[in-house]
Specification:
Blueprint lengths: L30 H21 L5 H9 L15
Length: 80
């Protein structure tokens, strides 16, 4: 058959991203910060549900914290 030589090469540069484990979370957020975030997010979700009683908790969470993932655009008329 054909005698084909294959070549392979490796880049000498690599990129490393270090992701902290939960035991290292104190470098990022303190326990108090995490608790304050949880409390604040619960208040925000409750307020949104008071304005729009038909919105689910999941929809409210996505709307508040992951807006690009919503399939609908926020409009007061979208929720009963």
């Amino acid at each position: 058959m054909f005698n084909i030589k294959k070549k392979i090469s490796f880049n000498c540069c690599i990129e490393v991203t270090i992701i902290p484990q939960t035991t290292e979370s104190k470098l990022w957020w303190s326990d108090r910060d995490i608790q304050l975030f949880k409390e604040s997010s619960i208040v925000e979700i409750i307020r949104l549900k008071q304005i729009h009683p038909s919105i689910t908790i999941q929809q409210a969470s996505k709307l508040l914290y992951q807006p690009p993932n919503m399939t609908i655009i926020y409009d007061i008329n979208n929720f009963g």
